[in-house]
From TrEMBL:
<feature type="transmembrane region" description="Helical">
    <location>
        <begin position="197"/>
        <end position="219"/>
    </location>
</feature>
<feature type="transmembrane region" description="Helical">
    <location>
        <begin position="231"/>
        <end position="253"/>
    </location>
</feature>
<feature type="transmembrane region" description="Helical">
    <location>
        <begin position="108"/>
        <end position="131"/>
    </location>
</feature>
<dbReference type="GO" id="GO:0000139">
    <property type="term" value="C:Golgi membrane"/>
</dbReference>
<dbReference type="GO" id="GO:0015081">
    <property type="term" value="F:sodium ion transmembrane transporter activity"/>
</dbReference>
<dbReference type="Pfam" id="PF02386">
    <property type="entry name" value="TrkH"/>
</dbReference>
<protein>
    <recommendedName>
        <fullName>Cation transporter HKT6</fullName>
    </recommendedName>
</protein>
<feature type="transmembrane region" description="Helical">
    <location>
        <begin position="322"/>
        <end position="345"/>
    </location>
</feature>
<comment type="similarity">
    <text>Belongs to the TrkH potassium transport family. HKT (TC 2.A.38.3) subfamily.</text>
</comment>
<keyword id="KW-0472">Membrane</keyword>
<dbReference type="InterPro" id="IPR051143">
    <property type="entry name" value="TrkH_K-transport"/>
</dbReference>
<keyword id="KW-0406">Ion transport</keyword>
<feature type="transmembrane region" description="Helical">
    <location>
        <begin position="456"/>
        <end position="478"/>
    </location>
</feature>
<keyword id="KW-0813">Transport</keyword>
<keyword id="KW-1133">Transmembrane helix</keyword>
<dbReference type="InterPro" id="IPR003445">
    <property type="entry name" value="Cat_transpt"/>
</dbReference>
<feature type="transmembrane region" description="Helical">
    <location>
        <begin position="382"/>
        <end position="406"/>
    </location>
</feature>
Length: 532
């Protein structure tokens, strides 16, 4: 009996050891497969990375806001509104379903962090990190092939002395060979570029915060406005600077920038902040790299300037493209400013402002219409012609240029070998998606469209959807005065029109904001559809 038990235990021990070995081998194999799969997805599908990233930070922001909300017993925000606000901040859309002053100071800091890490500049730094991993892999697999195919004659090797171990001062170094190779980028180049963009991000945000804070300290009228609101100068300065540079459009006060429409100095400080963070980011970055090349004289900076397409960083453009982009941005701003002044100069919204304040206000409003979303007027009170112009401006991508036709995402060689081209052709165009979203919202809000047609109409819904899709944040708002049947319980609020939508409509607009934040991956969609 004892012998049988011993044999059984030995067999069991042997089986457990065998199973443990196999399981360990299987787990290791599964981990390696998962690791390589994730690496493959990250290197071949940047859209997947972006979707995952914005999903994670949106839900992390939601949890943080929810925890801080539960700590404040006087604050009773709905879970859906908290999630909506988190997504709106992380996608830098500034669409609002609640008033900003309902958030505590701690919650406002959470929103500021979401705007910062969701901004175009910050996410592009993360993109450079993944690009470096891709270049590392390519270079490790093809180093020998790279060196053997380099045109050595294009480098000065005339003074190389084969009888010495190091050659003369003009001998070719391996780093020079790698820099001379146009087809395979040195990972160190992306590291250097990533450092430059990070410094750019810090300078723009910290510098903008300091400028706004100094203005508030020096102008008593602006201080008094914030004191009445119970908003600290430091919080307002940092929050508004991050929001402006990120082109989000949130401010810590309910009225946005309407209460500062007479503070022309503050508006003039914020205008360049909005431009350097989005529509003019590429020209400013090129100027920064050019300045570093002149100051340091490093070959790497020169390579970055001359081989922007090889690096593949979409914000790194040639001098010609940057010039065309600047002309386009300035042209759009001038066009909007002229039309705004022509139609709204004597309007009720600007009647208490001086001529100088009106011009600065029009310039500020026109700059915001592209992507930033801050406003000094009630949009429901301005001319319909301007509203239509704003819809067009909000729809246009940040790097729209009317002077040249180019693609910032792919070089000519990359386009030639782009295996996703056929799939992109069959994807619907941006206008098709907007039409689908409008129809869906019309379905969810069909009851309000019937009972409250002055507030809920197709034009107002379209404006809100295009604003969310363009990540702008403009809204026509909601007015109890426009109700056909007066409701004593109706209360006007400063949040956006979407705040009055159904829960289903808000959920759809969340999808629209995320979709709009990633619209850069569908700029060429719908090519297979031919209208004749």
């Amino acid at each position: 009996m004892n012998n049988s038990l011993v044999v059984y235990l030995k067999s069991l021990q042997t089986f457990c050891a065998f199973a443990s070995t196999k399981f360990s081998s299987f787990a290791k194999s599964a981990w390696q497969s998962m690791k390589y799969s994730c690496r493959f997805i990250c290197q071949t599908n940047p859209l997947f990375i972006q979707v995952t990233y914005f999903t994670l930070i949106s839900f992390a922001g939601y949890e943080a806001l929810k925890v801080l909300n539960s700590q404040d017993k006087s604050n009773t925000l709905k879970n859906l509104d908290v999630l909506f606000t988190s997504v709106s901040a992380s996608t830098v859309s500034s669409m609002a379903t609640v008033e900003m002053e309902e958030f505590s100071s701690k919650q406002l800091w959470v929103l500021a962090i979401l705007m910062l890490i969701g901004s175009e500049v910050f996410t592009s730094v993360l993109g450079l990190h993944f690009m470096r991993a891709k270049f590392n892999k390519e270079n490790s697999l093809n180093t020998r092939d790279h060196i053997s195919h380099i045109d050595i004659e294009s480098i000065n090797v005339a003074n190389f002395d084969p009888n010495t171990s190091h050659g003369t001062k003009d001998a070719v170094s391996f780093s020079e060979i790698r820099l001379a190779n146009k087809q395979h980028v040195d990972p160190k180049t992306t590291v250097l570029l990533g450092t430059a963009v990070t410094v750019y991000l810090l300078i723009t945000n910290l510098g903008s915060s300091l400028l706004i804070y100094l203005y508030l300290k020096l102008v008593p009228d602006a201080q008094e406005v914030l004191k009445r609101k119970g908003v600290g100068l430091f919080l307002f300065s940092v929050f508004t600077a991050i929001s402006s540079v990120a082109n989000c459009g949130f401010t810590p006060v309910n009225e946005n920038m309407v209460i500062f429409q007479k503070n022309s100095g503050l508006l003039l400080l914020i205008i360049p902040q909005m431009l350097v963070g989005n529509t003019l980011f590429a020209p400013c970055l090129r100027f920064m790299v050019w300045s570093l090349q002149k100051i340091t004289g490093k070959q790497e900076w020169c390579y970055i300037l001359e081989h922007a397409n090889a690096i593949g960083y979409r914000h790194l453009m040639s001098t010609r493209k940057c010039a065309c982009l600047i002309l386009t941005v300035v042209g759009f701003i001038i066009l909007q400013t002229i039309l705004f002044c022509a139609l709204e100069w004597s309007s009720e919204a600007l009647q208490e402002m001086s001529s100088y304040q009106k011009i600065v206000g029009a310039l500020f409003q026109s700059t915001n219409a592209r992507h930033a979303g801050e406003t000094i007027v009630d949009l429901s009170s301005i001319s319909s012609a301007i509203i239509v112009l704003y819809i067009v401006m909000m729809y246009l991508p940040g790097y729209t240029s009317i002077f040249t036709n180019y693609d910032d995402r792919y070089s000519k060689d990359e386009k030639r070998y782009n295996r996703k081209g056929l799939l992109e052709d069959w994807i619907l165009s941006q206008l098709s998606y907007l039409a689908i979203f409008v129809m869906l919202i019309c379905i969810t809000e069909r009851e309000a469209l019937t009972t409250d047609p002055l507030n809920f109409n197709v034009f107002s819904l379209l404006f809100e959807i295009v604003s969310a899709y363009g990540n702008v944040g403009f809204s026509m708002g909601y007015s109890c005065k426009r109700l056909l049947k007066q409701d004593l319980h109706c209360k006007d609020a400063s949040y956006g029109f979407v705040g009055k939508w159904s829960d289903e409509g808000k959920m759809i607009l969340i999808i629209v904001m995320v979709f709009g934040r990633l619209k850069g991956y569908n700029l060429k969609g719908g090519k297979a559809w031919k209208l004749r």
